[in-house]
């Protein structure tokens, strides 16, 4: 007997996200069954619901910033018990034996991680479905603990926006004395500002939106640069050790590269598409600069980030929505009209569609 689940799904690239009932597996011995309370809305949900990465599987139940309570556990689960507040991010499984998994970098699993949605369960071959739904069944290795010091609503976005910005800041050893710039003030960008500040860096926001300055300062920016103003860009030439670029679409990296110090690093976390226009070789050769990228973060690192947030009182700025409002939320996200993450209250599944 499998579980019948209410959720919201995209049925194609061109149809709105709408009510959808589907099945989840019976729990396996290592599974945790989670009654979902809240799910953040990531720009990746929109990209994938609309097949912008050309790999979408339908029906698709998006959602990979999941917070809920454990409602059952399999016989082999020791780490979680019924009633625990837990989280699930972008992955629900990986091979567990390759060199990446051995380092706790499951997101770089050499056999490919199993994504929370728009993926395939590596054990039964069935499609995975995400957090725009009432319940999820996940192997205990991919479930993280949510401290009672964290508000569960504003903790939801930490499971993707949080870890995706935390992981590169830690990998490139950002701390006191680092000069960091974050490009784009959206879901990822606002967490990037908070984390870079909390780690002790001097923090700059690059934004193309005039009017975000006071908000950016409230979120941790020491300086704000309007990226569309060449004079402001010139004024920060050769300044930054590390740029965290959260822009979701192809954009010109060259003006940003000129703002890096010798050996500076420009790290892409937003766009997946080819660089357009190309990076000028001269821009990287001249200052021995690096253009690189980073994907979410491993499970141990996700728990480390959540524990850091609990200790330092950090969480996402959120706007709660009902699941019925998801399509309008996508449109607002496209207009950068979100402060700074939508979070779905799954109790709204009981309301009429
Ligand atoms: P978001 O909330 O929509 O924020 C993106 C921000 O980028 C906007 O608020 C805007 O900030 C800026 N921006 C948008 N379009 C732009 C353009 N054409 N040119 C320049 N700036 C632009 O999105 P998000 O949820 O933070 O996600 C950002 C990207 O990261 C998405 O593509 C998502 O798929 C990706 N992502 C990657 C990973 C990973 O593991 N690498 C994980 C999660 C998400 P301003 O108004 O301040 O300019
Ligand atoms: Zn995401």
UniProtKB/TrEMBL annotation:
Protein source organism: Rhodanobacter soli
Transmembrane segments: none
Gene Ontology MF: a single term: alcohol dehydrogenase (NADP+) activity
Pfam hit, one: ADH_N
Gene3D superfamilies, per database record: Medium-chain alcohol dehydrogenases, catalytic domain (3.90.180.10), NAD(P)-binding Rossmann-like Domain (3.40.50.720)
Every Enoyl reductase (ER) domain range: 13-344
Cofactor: Zn(2+)
Protein name, as recorded: Zinc-type alcohol dehydrogenase-like protein
Keyword tags: Metal-binding, Oxidoreductase, Zinc
PANTHER family: ALDEHYDE REDUCTASE
Domain of life: Bacteria
UniProt feature coiled coil, ranges: none
EC nos: 1.1.1.2
Similarity comment: Belongs to the zinc-containing alcohol dehydrogenase family.
Phylogenetic placement of the source organism: Bacteria, Pseudomonadati, Pseudomonadota, Gammaproteobacteria, Lysobacterales
């Amino acid at each position: 007997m499998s579980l019948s689940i209410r959720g919201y799904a995209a049925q194609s690239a061109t149809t709105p996200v709408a009510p959808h009932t589907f099945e989840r597996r019976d729990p396996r011995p290592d599974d945790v069954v989670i009654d979902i309370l809240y799910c953040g809305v990531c720009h990746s949900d929109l990209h994938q619901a609309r097949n912008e990465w050309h790999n979408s599987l339908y029906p698709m139940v998006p959602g990979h910033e999941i917070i809920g309570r454990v409602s059952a556990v399999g016989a082999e689960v020791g780490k979680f018990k019924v009633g625990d507040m837990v989280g699930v991010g972008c992955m629900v499984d990986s091979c567990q034996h390759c060199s990446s998994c051995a380092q706790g970098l499951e997101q770089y699993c050499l056999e490919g991680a199993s994504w929370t949605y728009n993926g395939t369960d590596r054990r039964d071959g069935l499609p995975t479905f995400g957090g725009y739904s009432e319940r999820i069944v996940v192997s205990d290795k991919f479930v993280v603990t949510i401290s009672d010091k964290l508000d569960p609503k504003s903790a939801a976005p930490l499971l993707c926006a949080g870890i995706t910005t935390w992981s590169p800041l830690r990998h490139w050893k950002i701390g006191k004395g680092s000069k960091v710039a974050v490009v784009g003030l959206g879901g990822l960008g606002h967490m990037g500002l908070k984390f870079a500040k909390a780690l002790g860096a001097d923090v700059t926001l690059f934004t193309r939106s005039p009017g975000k300055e006071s908000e950016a300062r409230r979120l941790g920016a020491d300086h704000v640069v309007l990226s569309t103003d060449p004079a402001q860009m010139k004024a920060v030439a050769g300044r930054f050790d590390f740029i965290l670029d959260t822009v979701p679409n192809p954009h010109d990296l060259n003006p940003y590269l000129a703002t890096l110090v010798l050996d500076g690093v420009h790290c892409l976390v937003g766009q997946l598409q080819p660089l357009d226009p190309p990076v000028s070789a001269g821009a990287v050769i001249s200052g021995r600069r690096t253009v690189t990228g980073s994907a979410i973060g491993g499970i141990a690192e996700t728990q480390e980030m959540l524990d850091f947030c609990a200790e330092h009182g950090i969480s996402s700025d959120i706007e709660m929505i009902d699941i019925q409002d998801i399509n309008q939320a996508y449109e607002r996200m496209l207009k950068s009209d979100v402060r700074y993450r939508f979070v779905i209250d799954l109790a709204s599944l009981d309301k009429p569609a």
